[in-house]
Amino acid sequence: MIREIITYPTPPSVEYATDVRVFNEEISSLIEDMKDTIQANSIDGLAAFQIGNYYNVVVVKKEQDGDFLELINPRIISQNGKVTTVEKTAYFPKLSAKITRYETIGLVYQDRFGNQHSLKADGDFSILLQRKIDYTFGSSFLNKLSKEEKKLFTKKLEFGTDIAISESCPTVFKRDYIIKVINTVMIAMVILLMGSLFANDETSAELWQYQTYLFYAAIALNIIYFFYAQYEGKRFTSCTSCQIGNIIGTSVILLAKLSAIMLLSYFII
Q1: pLDDT tens across 63-110, in order?
Q2: How is the chain split into domains, by residue range?
Q3: 25-161 placed in CATH 3.90.45.10
Q4: Which distant-in-sequence residues (6+ apart) come within 8 Å of 101 by Cβ?
């Protein structure tokens, strides 16, 4: 029987899995339901936890032949190496995250008849087993994320898709620092302009020279801003058009301010 897989934001109906003590028809029926659910949803594995069952049971597809591996009461007893992977899980459909896990693991488990087994796994199969065993402890890969990745994943949850987060426009750009420098230069030009009101002819000539240098520096920074801002804006295709308009407008306003300051300086200094 195909069972419903619990997905975000619905919380699991159990907090953690309970070890199986009696190996009976109930467990065999659960395993068959999990297999049907895996096939119906075209996924690689399930923990009973994911369908709201409290038993410590995991079913995954084998790498070699696509047959099923049934693990009851699985326990990881050894691990080696670290690897960072991009993972997806049925609890967070359409979303992925970067997670650091063990590269190789050793584990023990029981089959549906209570017989003890052990195995070693590496590569993608190891990652799959670790992810499913996480669920038996009431956890998901969200608890494995780094601080930075968790912050990014929270935004993905808000948009409901990986694409949305990559296509969203940031609110702060590196080009903003160039504008701050240009504004600082213009403030210095205004200060020189005000100072010239109290200067003699010789000092005014020097101030005019400095004013010219600052003007050329501000023009150069404005050109750098214009081209770099377009480069930065094109990295976010969903908002490129609005950014280009904003970049052009900002450049024109900066040039207008510079021209006004320089024109006043010409007549006053």
Answers
A1: 777 799 999 999 999 999 999 989 888 888 888 999 999 999 999 999
A2: 25-161, 175-268
A3: yes
A4: 82, 83, 84, 85, 126, 127, 130, 144
